[in-house]
Amino acid sequence: MKVDVLTLFPEMMDGVFRSSILGKAQEKGIVSLNAVNFRDYSGNKHGTVDDTPYGGGGGMVLKPDPIFAAVEDLLSQSSAAPRVILMCPQGETFTQQKAEELSSEEHLIFICGHYEGYDERIREHLVTDELSIGDYVLTGGELPAMVAIDSVVRLLPGVLGNESSAITDSFSTGLLEYPHYTRPAEFRGFKVPDILLSGHHANIEVWRREQALKRTLQRRPDMLDKAVLTDQDFKIIQRLKQEQQEDGS
């Protein structure tokens, strides 16, 4: 996969792209991560990429020409039709399902804005997706883009040491993830559940599923409305709800 990020601050990407899972993914040749300063496409000697909005108002607006020119240059170098993603508070909320969808693409281009906003023609005629990581405003699109890129790249085959890790992550299964434990079996009097020490893998899987359902019911019950659940899952949820009522009485 190839990922290009259009930004006025490419130095923000350096440490993230070279570190941890993203850095290892690049070393393995699984992904190419590239930060592009779209000021280089301003077409004027001052490198101006923003201007005052028509109709008045506070703040500055990113001009369409530098961003169009930058994207078109990247398109001319690409063998695949990329998804062009605008990071924007008005966009679709980024989810694990969206990350899984984007992980199947060969080329992603992220556009990170600053100032008051984007010229609307960028939205209308250039981008394929608009994404937001939450209902709050940041100073620019770089941090949201890095969040999305990390989420997408870790799903690519060969990136994680354990391929099942991404599959069982919270949100990938539609549920929050079950609790994890490791050595020692007892720490300061706190013990690992006996079932995990039993060596009985079928029983362990049943326990983990129930724990995932329990944690989701307690912390994010809204997720159960969209999760793919079996008849057995519904029975477990009903029992857990009954136990909650009894504990609360």
From TrEMBL:
Protein purpose: Specifically methylates guanosine-37 in various tRNAs.
Subcellular localization, as worded in the UniProt entry: Cytoplasm
Alphabetical list of InterPro entries matching this protein: Alpha/beta_knot_MTases, tRNA_m1G_MeTrfase_C_sf, tRNA_m1G_MeTrfase_TrmD, tRNA_m1G_MTases_N, tRNA_MeTrfase_TRMD/TRM10
Alphabetized Gene3D superfamilies for the sequence: 3.40.1280.10, tRNA(m1g37)methyltransferase, domain 2
Organism domain of life: Bacteria
Binding site for S-adenosyl-L-methionine: G113, I133, G134, D135, Y136, V137, L138
EC number: 2.1.1.228
Protein name: tRNA (guanine-N(1)-)-methyltransferase
tRNA methyltransferase TRMD/TRM10-type domain span: 1-225
One family name in Pfam for this protein: tRNA_m1G_MT
Source organism (scientific name): Paenibacillus dendrobii
GO molecular function: tRNA (guanine(37)-N1)-methyltransferase activity
Chemical reaction(s) catalysed: guanosine(37) in tRNA + S-adenosyl-L-methionine = N(1)-methylguanosine(37) in tRNA + S-adenosyl-L-homocysteine + H(+)
Family per similarity comment: Belongs to the RNA methyltransferase TrmD family.
Biological process annotations from GO: tRNA N1-guanine methylation
Keywords per UniProt: Cytoplasm, Methyltransferase, S-adenosyl-L-methionine, Transferase, tRNA processing
Lineage: Bacteria, Bacillati, Bacillota, Bacilli, Bacillales
Subunit structure: Homodimer.
Coarse class of the protein's main subcellular location: cytoplasm
GO CC term, one of those recorded: cytosol
